[in-house]
Amino acid sequence: ACAIALMIQIGQYPFVVGWLTAKVIALVVYIVLGTVALKPHRTKPVRSAAFGLALLCYGYMVSVAIKHDPMGFLALL
Fold first, then answer.
1. Which of 3, 18, 35, 36 could staple 50 via S-S, CB 3.0–4.6 A?
2. Displacement of CA 57 from its chain's centroid (Å)
3. What's the confidence (pLDDT) of residue 9?
4. Predicted structure pTM score
5. How far apart are CA 77 and CA 67, in angstroms?
6. What is the CA radius of gyration of the chain?
7. Which residue intervals of the chain are DSSP H helices?
8. Using one digit for the tens of pLDDT, what is the confidence trace for 32-73?
């Protein structure tokens, strides 16, 4: 609710502003990866890979939020 209120106040909307769109999509991917990582019926390698990718996704979201650039830390590569 706070994120929606802030979005309305500053006038930046997902699917209009590139960096915010990238952050919303990364958030959905992060949630899916977290769900896979926490499922006990998955194999250990799958859960470990999902956990690592979720951490990478989190870092990407932080870098996008700081830089206001959809590439985030990927721009350094």
1. 36
2. 5
3. 81
4. 0.80
5. 15
6. 14
7. 2-10, 18-38, 44-67
8. 999 999 999 999 999 999 999 999 999 999 999 899 888 988
Nearest Cα to Cα of residue 6 among 58, 65, 72:
65
Distance between CA atoms of 15 and 25, rounded to whole angstroms? 10
- Select from 32, 26, 21, 29 the least CA-distant residue to 68: 21
Please report, to the nearest 10 degrees, the dihedral formed by the alpha carbons of residues 45, 48, 54, 56 taken in order.
-100
> Each residue of 8-33: pLDDT tens digit?
787 777 777 788 888 888 999 999 99
How long, in residues, is the chain?
Answer: 77
- As given in the structure block, the two tokens for residue 17 are 């502003």
Asked if 72 and 60 touch (Cβ cutoff 8 Å), the reply is: yes
Question: How big is the CA angle at 9 (ends 7 and 11), to the nearest 5 degrees?
Answer: 65
Please check whether residue 50 is in contact with residue 37, taking contact to mean a CB–CB distance below 8 angstroms: yes
